[in-house]
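protien #1 (seq + structre)
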Amino acid sequence: MIGQLLSGRYKVQRILGAGGFGQTFVAEDTQRPGNPVCVVKQLKPASNDPSFLETARRKFREEGEALEKLGENPQIPRLLANFEQDQEFYLVQEFIDGQTLSAELQVGKKWTENQVVDLLKQTLSVLAFVHQNGVIHRDVKPDNIIRRKSDNQLILVDFGAVKQVRNQTAMGQKMLSATIAIGTPGYMPSEQAIGKPKPSSDIYALGVIAIQALTGLSPSPQQEDTDTGFRYDHNTGELVWQDKVQVSANLAAILTKMVKFRSQERYTSAVEALQALDQLQSGYTPTVQVTSPSYQPTVQVTPQPTRPVHAPTVQVSESVSARNQQNRPTAPQVAPRSSSGFNNPVIFAGVLLFIIGVVSVYLLRPQSTVTSPQASSTSQQTVPKSPESTSVYDPKIGVTEYYKLINNRQIDQAFQMLTPEFQNDKAKGYKSYSDWWLSLDSVGLEIINSNWNTGTATVDTNLTYFRNGKPLKTEFLRPYLRWNDSLNKWQIYNSEK
């Protein structure tokens, strides 16, 4: 492709990146004065079927119109052209000279609060514009935020809308709704992981970046719960970060709300988050060490859920942490001791009896147990039977996570999602397993149905295998799953076609 002239105008200089859906180039625009450089994104359809191409073509035009509108914002690259050549689709966008935030966010290096607030204000401003135009970015991460060299402005690039076109051209309309969700683990909230992104999903991702900058820690799932990685409360799914950094209380409250596990508890819009930032005083109050409260409520949840970003989840109807706070006892409040009051023995005796009474009621109160929202009032369910009751147990999540690992080329981690007996049941062990999956470009997943009860489940799926950019075959597969208490996740122990 180097040196090739696209659309009789754009001369390819070098390759910026490549993937299963096409390549991204830096090219010269030979029809503009000075031959300025631009970015050309190639999107390859996987099929030459006329009806398929027409659907992809229509979708491509629609997304081009959306990107044209977004390019009116100075913090978004302008769309210069979109065209089709040899049944392949191309987007031409403004080239941004600068470096990504990934180059600035180094593990162990902490930003100042002023730097983080500037990051939030600049990016929330452009997200507000994006959301007001009916678009959700869907992949806000350091690699997709460029600090422009000319003015230090932060530029938001590589919209999820373009990725949707890529999925459309690779898998077709039928597979689009069932394939792995757009996004990046570590920055992607639970609702987005099951293909249901909201504007607050972008706010979550930006909050993660801000916490990454403040703490110097990495949100990468591979580093989770290590000295250099993020830590999550496995009961509630909340990100635990405040004990890792000195931070002002106001900024800590804003970031905590941005990254709440339940989307309903986050800011509903980027504008709302911006308003909260505007209320911060320009001179920060002295920073304080924010730590988790010493009170730790006992929560009975069996089995414990895994981290929501690794296992895509459906929306939880009620936050465990919220219910714990509601049930948290309030300590009796006693008026400050005054010299006139406690010199009077009658008053002193009355106050003492009141305190004893309150404490007795507190100690003798019935102990409540937090159970699954769908649990019976007379009995508890070890594993909820309704995916709407609590998302983290849904076996569809386990199956989706399994194929996401495969598509991300994390074959060893996918192999560990098989039970030991199922691993040993493979004819040639890990090597043949790995060789098979690595011989494919990707696998498309369509979940048809699931049946589950206490500790076991089946999930009916259609799998489409892609090789060399084309569908290889589609087959029905029914994985059998078993809940592993020690690992807090589903494992596949058998399958049938």
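ok now protien #2
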Amino acid sequence: MLIRNEAPLLLFMGELEEALSRERVALSDEARMYLSGLLTRIRSEHGPMRQTPLAPDYLNALSSLSEQERTVLFRSVGDSALIISGWWWQWLERFRQPMDPAYHAELGERAYRQVEQELFDELADKFASLIDVLARMSARLQTDDRQVMEVYATWLRTQSRHAARLLRMHGIDVRAAGRTRH
């Protein structure tokens, strides 16, 4: 059965394939479909999926009596952490959220590990690489000139490896910029 609005799904599937190839990340077909579907669901968002901390949901899942509820909560935490740290990574810097990006990565990986399904074990195993894959896709699909300047400003403040990689994708070599005196 096709998803009702298949154009965004097909776009994300193609972009995901390219980003996985460029980042040299191997992913099962099931995981590729899951991530494409996840991106399709959040495509109309103009900010992170949630603006509340993920830890309370993680703790609620740990204490939940229902296995189904645990699975839903852990999956939601993992999905949110992956999207925030990969697709919406700039949001953390732009709004100066008190959470370190490593917080989202670690919590998301742990949440996926709690979902006792092979798909989520794979996503947990490759969580850090998937952050880079989604960031590459986000930069390609969402970046205009103003956003490139914001990424550059982020790099100037943080010397982030991730921001440097995104800038290189747009033809800006920050290694040369880092050696110049202002």
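Residues 1-5 have pLDDT under 50 and may be disordered.
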